[in-house]
Amino acid sequence: MAETSVNRGNGTEKGPLNDRARIWGGIDLGGTKIEAVVVDARGEVLGRARHMTPSKGGPGEVVKELYGTLGEAAQTAGIEPAKLAGVGVGAPGSVDANSGTLAHASNVAGGWDAPYPIASDLGDLVGGKVVMGNDVQVAVAAEYKLGAGRGHRSVLGVWWGTGVGGGLVLNGVPWRGQGSAGEIGHMVVKPNGARCGCGRRGCLEAYAGRASMERKAHAAVKKGTKTILFDIMRDKGRTRLSSGIWSRALKEKDPLATRLIHRAVAMMGVAVASVINLLDVEAVVIGGGLGSRLGEPFVERIADAMHPHLFITERKPALRVAELGDLSGAIGAALLAGPQM
């Protein structure tokens, strides 16, 4: 009987892999990375893998990389992908869970607008059923059930990474609206403001999304601004300004990185406070690449930035860093496929 590492983001332990009929796969598709896990009925992680998201090639290349990442995670768990009870995928953009399609994926593999049958194509490779959900919505559901949202009936999740995504649990029920509820990144925080990747102006993502901040940094350098951001990027052999690069630049007090992150935090405060004023949720969970990397000090800064915009300042929601870390999206996608906590 095989043994493998069980990892829920907070530590590891050894445990037997003894019930293959009740094992699910979960994949988190991000703008820069793909994270895959294999979990049991309790949500314990039996295997995991991470690959870089294709920077070009469109949805076909994305499907191939999704399958490759899932296959590696399954291998570490000692199981073939075809033996999984089900596979869930959390993806950014407009997800149609009924048809298994993904559209308006502007931050993935060069982007595409028209609906593409991700679930069907991946299902053909896996040899089984694949279900889909919005990446942040499934991550927030995982945090609600297993992580930082435990003990609260209403939770707003804000995933700060390549873009800025959001998800809601209201009175214990994930709230999806007509399919795109929780898109806090496309709340307008400044009318006629900065151009967003979605094509509109003034969205939160135009100020706080890592891709937007990178474009702003490039533009500043062209105008003569000095920064170590791209020096760090080259030293690390990266082609994009990852969360780790921003974190290091902040630690070294790079003026441009400091200014852009300060602007991002200020706009996050506006958007999160507006959601609180409307929905009065009990807790806010901050996750995503930047949210998890920058951690508690920056969650506290977001709380401070919220304060001037809150209608009822004496009853603030709890603000917490996502406990499941980088695995929250993949675990949430796996839960979407079958395990019920």
Automatic annotation (TrEMBL):
Which protein, by its recorded name, is this? Answer: ROK family protein
Highest taxon of the lineage: Bacteria
PANTHER family recorded for this chain? BIFUNCTIONAL UDP-N-ACETYLGLUCOSAMINE 2-EPIMERASE_N-ACETYLMANNOSAMINE KINASE, ROK (REPRESSOR, ORF, KINASE) FAMILY
The family line of this record is:
Belongs to the ROK (NagC/XylR) family.
InterPro entries attached here? ATPase_NBD, ROK
Which residues does the annotated region (Disordered) include? 1-20
Query: Which SUPFAM superfamilies does the protein's record reference?
Result: Actin-like ATPase domain (SSF53067)
Stored Pfam families: ROK (PF00480)
Bias kind Polar residues: ranges: 1-10
Please report the organism this UniProt entry assigns to the protein.
Answer: Corallococcus praedator
